[in-house]
């Protein structure tokens, strides 16, 4: 499979609304709301709802609501299939669509049924993400809209890449929850473990103890690679929702 160079000059496939909001963005905050908290207190997985904020802005510019079956959420928990549409506030113009099919939960030494998701904008595919075979540290590859390898993503590691480095982001605990990140590396970069340089990251931020105990609501900061175009930024925004479903949702 070909390896795509991040940020190379090519026709962007996303919608005009997407480009208007993310083309110049360096970072983005994604906050999951407490929608469905009562269902979660009863042990049922609720529909996810997210709000999107640009760097330095308090007003969210886009909202996303998961579309999925209540029965599948209850029976399959974090592995249930879902679709998410990220729409612009005020106009409902689509910025990003996420489609995650039902697959086995992420796990080491799998040979099939890898977790994956596809992303589109304005009806045009902008990329996908897929779990790779791994032993101890979850590893993923992101692909552009034409199927070329774009990024490698995995948590920071230690012990020669054998373990997740829980303290890589500084003090791991604060405000009731641990920090967790997936670092972003160019697909062509061979060394990605330990202190290898990375070009961006998806960071799950700490939150209050009450939110942690009573809901599975998460908050993420996405730092985009400097050379990423609008389509690649959309891919990473969708990847944050994908990681939330796979690693940070409570099991049904």
Task: Give the secondary structure arrangement, pairings included.
Layout: H1 16-22, E1 27-32, H2 37-41, E2 49-54, E3 62-67, H3 70-76, E4 82-88, E5 94-100, E6 116-121, E7 124-131, E8 140-144, E9 149-154, E10 157-158, E11 163-164, E12 173-174, E13 177-178, E14 180-186, E15 200-204, H4 209-214, E16 219-223, H5 230-248
Would you kindly provide a brief summary of this structure?
This protein has five helices and 16 strands.
Give the tags.
twelve-stranded antiparallel beta barrel; about 250 residues; two-stranded antiparallel ribbon; single chain
Question: Could you characterize what this model shows?
Answer:
With 252 residues, this protein is an alpha+beta fold. It contains five helices and 16 strands. It has a twelve-stranded antiparallel barrel with strand order 1-2-3-4-5-6-7-8-9-14-15-16. The chain is globular. The relative contact order is 0.21. Residues 210-215 have low confidence and may be disordered.
């Amino acid at each position: 499979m070909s390896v795509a160079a991040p940020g190379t000059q090519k026709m962007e496939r996303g919608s005009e609304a997407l480009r208007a909001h993310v083309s110049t963005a360096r970072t983005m905050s994604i906050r999951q709301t407490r929608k469905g908290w009562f269902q979660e207190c009863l042990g049922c997985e609720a529909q996810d709802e997210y709000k999107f904020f640009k760097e330095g802005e308090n007003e969210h510019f886009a909202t996303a609501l998961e579309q999925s079956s209540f029965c599948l959420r209850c029976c399959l928990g974090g592995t249930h299939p879902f679709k998410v549409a990220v729409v612009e506030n005020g106009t409902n113009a689509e910025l990003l669509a996420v489609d995650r099919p039902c697959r086995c939960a992420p796990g080491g030494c799998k040979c099939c049924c890898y977790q994956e998701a596809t992303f589109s904008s304005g009806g045009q595919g902008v990329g996908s993400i897929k779990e790779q075979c791994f032993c101890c540290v979850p590893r993923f590859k992101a692909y552009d809209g034409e199927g070329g390898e774009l990024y490698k993503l995995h948590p920071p590691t230690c012990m020669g890449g054998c373990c997740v480095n829980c303290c890589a982001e500084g003090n791991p605990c604060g405000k009731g929850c641990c920090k967790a990140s997936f670092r972003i590396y160019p697909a062509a970069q061979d060394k990605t473990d330990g202190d290898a340089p990375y070009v961006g990251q998806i960071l799950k931020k700490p939150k209050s103890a009450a939110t942690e105990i009573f809901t599975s609501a998460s908050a993420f900061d996405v730092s985009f690679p400097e050379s990423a175009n609008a389509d690649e930024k959309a891919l990473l925004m969708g990847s944050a929702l994908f990681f939330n479903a796979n690693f940070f949702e409570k099991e049904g």
